Amino acid sequence: MATSTFDTLLQKIETRAARAGIIGLGYVGLPLAIAVARSGFAVTGFDIDPGKIVALEGRRSYIDAVRNEALAAEIEAGRFRATTDFAGLAECDVIIICVPTPLTKHRDPDLSFVEATSRSIAQHLRPGQLVALESTTYPGTTDDVVKVILEGTGLKSGSDFFVGFSPEREDPGNQHYHTATIPKVVAGDGPEALALMKAFYGAAVSTVVPVSSNATAEAVKLTENIFRSVNIALVNELKTVYAAMGIDVWEVIDAAKTKPFGYMPFYPGPGLGGHCIPIDPFYLTWKSREYELPTRFIELAGEINSAMPRYVVGKLAEALDMRAGKALSRSRVLVLGLAYKKNVADIRESPSLRLIEIIEERGGRADYHDPFVTEIPPTREYQALKGRKSVALTPEAVAGYDAVLVATDHDRVDYAALAKTASLIVDTRNVFDRLGLATDHVIKA
């Protein structure tokens, strides 16, 4: 029975007769859905947000990585459709979970989206399906949470259906790599599940990297993001130390990276943003408590990075006092860049939101300009900022602010004009020095 179910599903995948269901049509799910459709599979996208379905049916992509033309091509070819009706999961041979995995207020893993999605799948689970999780999480989630919920139906993993994990590796704004060209780590609950994962993802991406277990694959994703978190924390701490010594950390890094071995440059900033790096490390620190093992290095990195917005606002207040003779509580500040990284519209966990909050907690008034984000959408942690609109970056508008705080160095900004019109600039990205526009009224932070 197990071999027959496996062979039937494998043949469907290899002949592109399988229908794929992608649950969660956000920054991960929508690019994956289009990549899978391009490889020849029929794809159904599922999301609980009816607004997304309306946009997709109108051939309008809300994700920069998916162009409207690419979306329209797959819809018109009959390879992609989107719906809020999860009953369609029964038709899908491969089901991929791409839902958020945030933290609670106490920085514990919030698996509510994964659990709810798994229960939805369980309602429509049938023999001959492959269910894969892509959401970043702690080692053991796929086997101990997803698999357990699915087996609650009475069907068994490895015989009736198959379970796997493949961590997402999306990088918004990356012009060199996209979903189909980024190597894909895959794992499965048993050798047959792994074989199905390799066959399915191997049809849609250029390189598949199999590992021995779902827990290993889950650990791979955490390791990638912890690596970045720790190294960014290191340069953020060096920034504060070197600043006290009158040393420019960016000059130090630029010189250090000329070493052709044993060094990799990381750069400081106003804090960490994006869904992955500020959140994922805490999934491992939480899980490690089960084994009574401390994760001091990881937690220290989180503390340093989380402290950066307040450090930056402190430097802003100091600059206003020393250069303008004005208290932050009586100042108007323009935060330049709301997105967490340059040239994208992604504001998930953006430190800019925290910067605005801290400035206003201290009595100042903060507005923002971002060429990619015209209005602040609803967020879980910053509801009070919802609806604020981007200020036009005109010379008259800039002149009305006591300081401009550069939080994101978007390319769509005329920094030369800004240097001429702003009375004080606090630069957290070294953009003015990098462009040869450094002046006395530009302060690095």
From TrEMBL:
Keywords: NAD, Oxidoreductase. InterPro entries: 6-PGluconate_DH-like_C_sf, NAD(P)-bd_dom_sf, UDP-Glc/GDP-Man, UDP-Glc/GDP-Man_DH_C, UDP-Glc/GDP-Man_DH_C_sf, UDP-Glc/GDP-Man_DH_dimer, UDP-Glc/GDP-Man_DH_N, UDP_ManNAc/GlcNAc_DH. It comes from the Bacteria. Residues 334-434 form the UDP-glucose/GDP-mannose dehydrogenase C-terminal domain. Belongs to the UDP-glucose/GDP-mannose dehydrogenase family. PANTHER family: UDP-N-ACETYL-D-MANNOSAMINE DEHYDROGENASE. This is Nucleotide sugar dehydrogenase. It comes from Rhizobium bangladeshense.
